[in-house]
Amino acid sequence: MGHPPFAVTVDLVVLTLTGDELCALVVRRGISPYRGEWALPGGFVREDEDLPDAARRELAEETGLPPGTVHIEQLAGYGAPDRDPRMRVVTIAYLALAPDLPLPRAGSDAAEARWTPVRSLRAERLAFDHDRILADGLERARAKLEYSPLATAFCAPEFTVAELRRVYELVWDTRLDPRNFHRKVTGADGLLEPTGRTTTRDGGRPAQLYRRGGAELLYPPMLRS
Amino acid sequence: MGHPPFAVTVDLVVLTLTGDELCALVVRRGISPYRGEWALPGGFVREDEDLPDAARRELAEETGLPPGTVHIEQLAGYGAPDRDPRMRVVTIAYLALAPDLPLPRAGSDAAEARWTPVRSLRAERLAFDHDRILADGLERARAKLEYSPLATAFCAPEFTVAELRRVYELVWDTRLDPRNFHRKVTGADGLLEPTGRTTTRDGGRPAQLYRRGGAELLYPPMLRS
DNA sequence: CCTCTTATCGTCAGCATGACGATATTCGGT
DNA sequence: ACCGAATATCGTCATGCTGACGATAAGAGG
After folding, report:
1. Which nucleotide is at minimal CA–C1' distance from B206?
2. What pLDDT was estimated at residue A105?
3. Strands B71-78, B89-97: parallel, antiparallel or unpaired by DSSP?
4. Cis amide bond preceding B220, omega within 30
5. What is the mean pLDDT of residues A149-171?
6. What is the pLDDT of residue A200?
7. Are the beta carbons of B90 and A88 separated by less than 8 Å?
8. Which residue among the candidates A112, A146, A158, A169 is catalytic per the annotation?
9. Cis peptide, bond prior to residue A206, ω within 30 of zero
């Protein structure tokens, strides 16, 4: 009773908010299979590398970001026998959320990389089973906004309540009442930590600047209903 | 730039309620490494097998259950370089929830199998990184009871409100007010479907029997707080 | 019948929520 | 200096969900 050999990769669903759209990072594949088509960034796990390390390495290679700026968590494993025509490949997908970023740079085996609005990705096709992986990542992100402080991962280190609200509105594709939202997030325990400073970058009356608080759980949760 | 060979396995966190305890299925390993020690059931993914199929196959091998009785979902992937001394192994863990079951039978490479109360597993050590996997599975189960109808997976096809409440009490290790619980679950949309029949198997006044409804999401959620 | 046990319904105060009015504080223009 | 326009922040109020707990219903066993 042996064990067949597999290749193991990590793939990344990297989300950010550029302008007024929720965007995912996609790369144009430079090598076969699916050469020339769009896919999620990712690559093989190395000989002595743990899975989260591989995911962070690929993320750094594709985005050139200083680590620590980006929230990253495991999404799920995918291993259908025919998902890669070359051989049996199991991929561990990771979900990464980042604030508005410098343009991504092309990685080693990616000819080109760009941010694509998720709205337009419903129509486009990604290589392999990456459509499914992206959909799972989006659903995870949307769900976790409800009961975790994950929305702050889309914000710069210091942010206003309005910027946080914009995160919810763009990710959920909905509109939220500014007054009720303000009451809720400022009342949530450990979500926001006031800096005492203010900004007028959104125009109008100056807004308080906050940092993320230490809470791991958002209580009470923000329900979509 | 090659890709190192991996072995891929599935491991199972199988939970059930026996008597008045939350229990997990563990097997005594019949082969090296960790021969003779307790571990989660699992095994290698076969050449042409999808991951969920492998998980269901292992589950059937270890429990001998008719498939369809058991809820199963993917938990997470684990792939630390040193998690198996033999070679590089990535495992995809699955979480399975079952109603009270016939005794498990030993599988091919498991000398012995038994239900162990999770309370006593905090002290015991499982092989590989299975302590961590079990802890993750427990946390997932506890969390999903809050916002999904998952608790019904621990119940027989027809069950009473009190039996459902016992699921929550044992998994969360807490006590819930029977009257408020009853109001909440009978009011939740699509959670319970009355059968019209009753039972007195718990003594006292006969209780309504319900089947699971079609809801995928529990609204409003049951919060632990 | 009486008691014990469990199921189920009601009541009530407190908190969170959604809808929305009111006020504060800046900017840009005149 | 004054006037909108824009945004932030606070307040109000009716509604619904929740937790605490009383009351009643319906069976089993003496």
Report:
1. D27
2. 61
3. antiparallel
4. yes
5. 98
6. 93
7. no
8. A112
9. no
